[in-house]
Amino acid sequence: MKDTGNPLVVLFNPAPRKGFQAHRRVELPLNLLHTATPLVHAGYRVKVIDQFADPGWEPKLREALSEKPVCFGVSCMTGPQIIRALEACRNLKKLYPDVPTVWGGVHPSILPEQTLESPLVDFVVAGEGEETLRELAGALANGDSPREVAGIGYHENGEYIYTGNRPFVDLDAQPPLAYDLIDIHLYRRKIFGSDHVSFNSSRGCSFRCGFCYDSVVHKRVWRAMQPETVVSRLERVIRDHDIRGFNFTDDNLFIHLSHAYKLMEQIVRKDLRIKIGKLHIRIDSILKMDDDFFRLLARAGVERFTIGVESGSQRVLDLINKNLTVERVLEASRKLIGTSILPHYLFMMGLPTETPEELGQSIRLSEQLLRENPRAAKSFNIYMPYPGTELYRFAIELGLEAPQRLEDWSPLNYRYVPKKSPWIVPGTKKLLAGLDFPLMFMGTNFTYKKTHPIVRGLARLYYPLARYRVEHLNAHFPIETMVVKRLGLFGRQD
Ligand code: B12
Predict the structure, then answer these.
(1) Measured from the CB, is residue 105 less than 6 Å from ligand 1?
(2) How far apart are CA 466 and CA 448, in angstroms?
(3) pTM of the model
(4) Residue nearest to atom 29 of ligand 1 (CA)
(5) In this model, does residue 374 exceed pLDDT 80?
């Protein structure tokens, strides 16, 4: 029986990948959970449909839309998600032409006006969605003007209206997440022997890395839940779902080391016995920690740090404003060797003006890090100029044609080099095409380790060629990359 009492809001998470890849390596849709929870508390019925994680999303969406919602909310990053977000809105409009679509998330927050130029987008929520969507849904349900709702963009009589910025939400004042809106089992991932789900305890970062969305979306303002609140939220997940593993999605939990220290102390004091399978940290924060801090992190359950190194070339590090030296990377890495924490070093390749030699320096640095600490892992992703960032503006100077329509942003994908990419030096581009795939096989984290035995066998056979290519920066006739791309196993996935 349908409960038609309270107004309905349907929220949709579009998949960034398609086909069988869509449902791999999924993460909790914290974007929608954080946005949906205040709506639930305000008395709305909310349905969250996750195309990314849920193979059964289609019938669930049909069922959710068997009744007319107040609005249809969509979350979106820059990239292939846009195509599927538009597709979902097109289908919604066929069913209910007058139900407004509301776009939120990083991409519409950065480009609200351009996003609204699509006829399939009625409202854009810029920035945090918690209070904005609740107020907007209220205005829509009551037939009030949305003018008073701060933080939204829309068209009125053909004119673009932006209602002005809204202060950041008080994270401690938010109700605990309404996990019952999703099937949490879809998101459990076993790492370090425990089921893990994503968790977010702070937002923003005060650094100025030229590639990062932070300064435009979070205005370099760091906000965090108090340690007590974090602990009580974690306790709930443990109690209600028997999950004791958490991957933190915080941009930078370590802006104030004292905050991170207190949080870890609380976790230990409350005897949560959790594992933290992923926690992002900068090199400089590692260098500021003493042995006591590392011991505390280990006791609190921290298993792995993800660490943005980005490049092995000092010129490139300076260019991207990383505020880091190669020597300090090595110093921090050596410091971690004596601890139980696994480092996962993240690199970018194809950064604007990066030469083949400089990419070679990154590869050499990654190999040195892995040689010195065999428990470490590394990943290389292809740099993409994301809108609103300093490096995006530089890429424009180098000849990037700014995408003019919402859908033109969809080819931006960190495993795919667009044909027209004037920010990438031609020699480097050739290396990217030939080395992106073999690089995945270097180090302990190589992606196919946990896959089917046949895939593992093929990977083992391929390994010597991958090694040769990486060692000699050899990207000649990358037949293997062409094959895996043709088979849709790697590369462009829109
Ligand atoms: C987890 C994560 C993912 C997950 C997906 C999570 C999911 N379920 O959808 C995975 C691993 C799949 C992923 C993939 C990618 N990601 Co990612 N990801 C993140 C990460 C680390 C955390 C997201 C999160 O949980 N945030 C916490 C929540 C609470 O914040 P939020 O998502 O911003 O949501 C708030 C608002 O945006 C808004 N909101 C969001 N959605 C909606 C919807 C509505 C209707 C409304 C009203 C409001 C609203 O309200 C929310 C609450 O305040 C962020 C960085 C970060 N710390 O945010 C990067 C980030 C979002 N990713 C990014 C990128 C670039 C990608 C990739 C495109 C490429 C890459 N290199 O990883 C790929 C996708 C492409 C592909 N082919 O796979 C960029 C986005 C930049 C941009 N311009 O869009 C970010 C910001 C990282 C960065 N520093 O550059 N990602």
Answers:
(1) yes
(2) 14
(3) 0.94
(4) 31
(5) yes
Torsion angle defined by CA atoms of residues 222, 250, 306 and 235, in that order, rounded to the nearest 10 degrees:
130
Cα(301)–Cα(247) distance, rounded to whole angstroms?
A: 11
Query: What is the domain partition of the chain in residue ranges?
Result: 8-162, 176-486
| CA–CA distance, 374 with 341 (Å, rounded to integer) | 12
Between the CA of 101 and the centroid of ligand 1 the distance, in Å, is 19
Q: Are 196 and 247 in contact (CB under 8 A)?
A: yes
Alpha carbons within 13 angstroms on the beta-carbon side of residue 276 total 31
Atom of ligand 1 nearest to the CA of 251: 57
| Residue 157: count of CB within 10 angstroms of its CB | 5
pLDDT (tens digit, 9 = 90+) per residue, 131-155?
999 999 999 999 999 999 999 999 9
Q: How many other C-beta atoms are found inside a 10 Å radius of the C-beta of residue 22?
A: 19
Cα(29) to ligand 1 centroid in Å equals 9
Q: Write the pLDDT tens digit of every residue in 162-184.
A: 999 999 999 999 999 999 999 99
CB 335 within 8 A of CB 369: no
The CATH number that domain 8-162 falls under is: 3.40.50.2300
CATH of domain 176-486: 3.80.30.20
**Pairing of the two strands 194-199 and 189-191:** antiparallel
Q: In this structure, are residues 275 and 190 in contact, taking their beta carbons and an 8 Å threshold?
A: no
DSSP state of 254: T
At residue 295, the 3 state secondary structure works out as helix
